[in-house]
Amino acid sequence: MTSPVYKRIMLKLSGEALGLPGSGGFDFDTLSGLCDQVAEARNCGVDVGLVVGAGNILRGAAISNSTIDRPTGDYMGMLATVINALAIQGALEQINVRTRVMSAIEMPPVAEPYIRRRALRHLEKGRVVIFGAGTGNPFFTTDTAAALRASEIGADVLLKATKVDGIYDEDPALNPNATRYEELTFSTALNKRLQVMDATAFSLCRENGMPVLVFDLTQPGSIMKAVRGESIGTMVKGD
To answer: What gap in Å lies between CA 207 and CA 66, rounded to an integer?
Structure first.
């Protein structure tokens, strides 16, 4: 079996990845399969940090309108990410993977407050650390939270799990002849205006030399393939 090429990873999941197609909520078969892959990576000696969105429950920006302002909507979204974090924690601990949820918004009964040094200590002890509540600030996405936490914990790579097998020069849903990139530089991705992640998150990764691997989570064993450095998805790095 090929050994992992990364010692420490940050896995970014969309909330939609946990939901039932078209209806949100939780798809517990998908959740179980995801946790099996995370457990396999952890059992191979890989330190795992994880950030999850809240799209299966609500998106703060999407519900903001004349009744609910943007900051309030974003705080609601942050709280929803903690619900997803607790779901993943529960599923991981059912298969004996030691896990901690750390929240950027303090809520002591359900999660530890995010403290960088404590997060590092959990990782050193072999625990999976799930970072909830985004950055704790409105106007920032969970992509940005993942880029920030990945840099703070010294991750070797940010694994951005999607439902598409990489980055294309055009939308593959609209153009079946779109070309998938195997590797890109940050500069090329910016110049071509490719939608890797939001601009703030992308800038953080670029400035901190954090490579980003975009891959299809729905493919069996995709997380372990990424961890082993197999040819999967699109890698964005360097300039």
So the answer is: 36
Q: Given phi > 0 = left and psi -120 to 50 = alpha, else beta, which region is 24?
A: left
* Of 20, 86, 24, nearest in space to 55 by CA: 24
Angle made by CA atoms 112, 209, 232, in degrees to the nearest 5: 85
Q: Which string of DSSP letters, residue by residue, matches 144-198?
A: HHHHHHHHHTT-SEEEEEESSSSEESS-TTT-TTPPEESEE-HHHHHHTT--SS-
CATH number of 8-236: 3.40.1160.10
Alpha-carbon gap, residue 34 to 85, rounded angstroms: 13
The reply to whether the predicted model has a pTM over 0.90 is yes
Q: What is the pLDDT of residues 133-184, one digit of tens each?
A: 999 999 999 999 999 999 999 999 999 998 889 999 888 888 989 999 999 9
Reference 87, options 111, 63, 107; nearest CA is: 111
Structure tokens given for 217: 């989570």
